[in-house]
Amino acid sequence: MGSRTGIYHEGSRAVQDRAGVRDLADHVGRAVGDGIKPVAAAFLELQPLLVLGAAAPDDGRVWASPLAGRPGFVRATGPHQMSVTGRLRPGDPLAPALATDGTPVATIALDPRTRRRMRLNGELRTTEAGFAVTAQRVFANCPKYIQRRDSYELLPGRAAGAPRHGHELTDAQRAFVASADTFFLATVRDGRAEVSHRGGLPGFVRSGSARELTWPDYAGNAMFLTLGNLAVDPRAGLLFLDWTTGTTLQVTGEGQTRFTADGERRVRFTVSEEIETPGAVPLRWSPPEPSPANPPVTT
Fold first, then answer.
1. How does pLDDT run across 72-93, given as a tens digit for each residue?
2. What is the maximal distance between C-alpha atoms in the chain?
3. By Cβ atoms counted within 10 A, which residue in 82, 101, 178, 253 is the most buried?
4. pLDDT class for 13, splitting at 50, 70, 90?
5. Nearest to 254 by CA among 240, 236, 273, 267
6. Which superkingdom is the protein from (predicted)?
7. Could you tell me where the beta strands, DSSP code E, fall in the chain?
């Protein structure tokens, strides 16, 4: 898995070539492996939040879901295995997938305190305490576009409210999206999953209508794993999180990348279904310090 051949498929290569960054992608790809190094294991054990991405087994829709707990609930239990103590809340759209052995799953651990993030993708196996993931792809990303949040509180007494389901965004949800400085994006391709982070100044995600979201694809590590997936399979899932109240907005649908004449990229996402859950995450983070890499939001 550490070879460049195993990392990129035709979708990623097509986007890399269009952006003129294939050589850079090959260089960056050398850092991708299938093992969990000691520094990565130490990072995982400090995290109170893990975001997961996968396709639901019943209808194939792609979702991104959060799982939170006391640091140590995620840990490396071998050079190629990550174990998680805990399960998704009942009713989460990915709960059935995470209760099924062999599910391809993607994870990202993001630490706002240090602006570090780590991605681990692989195959899931259920355990008595939760689940484990046999790692197939492990790598870190740069701190670009991560808003710093210096501290958090774990609120074990916070209980998730009743989820609200719909097939388009309400006005309040569109305002929530417009105020977001962070979201997570899950994609799939040929039985594998990816989940990535997107960040920017509030307003970088726009809602053109109750069933459409758009956002710019800022310059990153040149791998184009997410946009490459969308190029061959448009299914995607978004997770927006209120970092204070723990409310989540999960959206599933399809994404398409549009390239402008000046070389910029913008993703258009069509909403199929949304689930809003008050108090879903028992974490309360301190106010954000915007990333110095955030571009200005254009009108």
1. 999 999 999 999 999 999 899 9
2. 53
3. 82
4. very high
5. 236
6. Bacteria
7. 49-55, 62-68, 74-78, 81-85, 104-111, 116-126, 130-141, 152-154, 164-166, 182-189, 192-199, 206-209, 212-216, 235-241, 248-259, 265-277, 283-285
What are the extents of the domains in the chain? 4-285
Q: Per DSSP, what are the bridge partners of residue 135?
A: 122
Q: 289 phi and psi, to 5 degrees? A: -110, 115
**153-177: burial string, b at 16+ Cβ within 10 Å, e else:** eeeeebebeebeeeeebeeebbebb
**DSSP of 52-67:** EEEE-TTT--EEEEEE
The position carrying tokens 């974490």 is 283
Q: Which two tokens stand for residue 168?
A: 């388009």
Question: What residue type is assigned to position 133 of the chain?
Answer: V
As given in the structure block, the two tokens for residue 146 are 């991560």
127-to-100, 162, 212 alpha-carbon distances in Å: 10, 27, 38
- What per-residue confidence (pLDDT) applies to 220? 87
Distance, CA of 179 to CA of 64 (rounded, Å): 19
For CA atoms 111, 116, 119, 125, the dihedral sign is: negative
Lookup result for tokens 């997410």 = 226
Packed helices 225-232 and 10-19: angle between N→C axes, nearest 10 degrees: 120
The pLDDT tens digits of the residues spanning 93-152 come to 999 999 999 999 999 999 999 999 999 999 999 999 999 999 999 999 889 999 999 999
According to the CATH classification, is domain 4-285 in 2.30.110.10?
yes
